[in-house]
Amino acid sequence: MKPFIFTAMAMALALLSGCSSTSKYGHGDIVVGKVAIFRHKSSKMYKLECTECHDKLFITVKIHEKHDMEQLMAGDSCGTCHNGNRAFSVHGNCKACHRKNA
């Protein structure tokens, strides 16, 4: 229960203070499921606002880790934008997210 409360408080603080002002690129890199890595820096590079993903698609890393590639390819989670139109497709671009030493 304590980690949930801490996470909720941290997210509330970040949202209230303006996500981009708390850190240059959000909250750094996130390793997802020990095999893929998301770099907040890339979302800022494309001038995306925090609210485009949070809390619509991603609430916490723990909840996100429950998503699998089948869901992404069906347009859920990262696949919402990574569909080949808005951002590179999750189909055939494994190395864009999956790093050997993630």
Oligomer classification? single chain
Sequence stretches where pLDDT stays below 50 over 5 or more residues: 15-24
| Beta-strand share of residues | 5-15%
CATH fold name, please? Cytochrome C3
Number of helices: 5
What is the CATH superfamily label? Answer: Cytochrome C3
For the record, what CATH class applies?
A: Alpha Beta
- Helix/strand structural class: mainly alpha
**CATH-level-2 architecture:** Alpha-Beta Complex
How many domains is the backbone divided into? 1
Number of DSSP strands? 2
Please give the structural blueprint.
Layout: H1 2-17, H2 19-22, E1 29-32, E2 36-39, H3 40-45, H4 61-64, H5 69-73
Antiparallel strand pairs: 1-2
Account of the protein in words:
It contains 5 helices and 2 strands, in the order ααββααα. The protein is mainly α. The protein has a single domain, classed as Cytochrome C3 (Alpha-Beta Complex). Strands 1-2 form a two-stranded antiparallel sheet.
Features:
102 residues; single chain; Cytochrome C3; 34% helix; 5 helices; mainly alpha; two-stranded antiparallel sheet; globular
Describe the structure concisely:
The chain has helices at 2-17, 19-22, 40-45, 61-64, 69-73; strands spanning 29-32, 36-39. By secondary structure, the chain is mostly helical. It has a two-stranded antiparallel sheet with strand order 1-2.
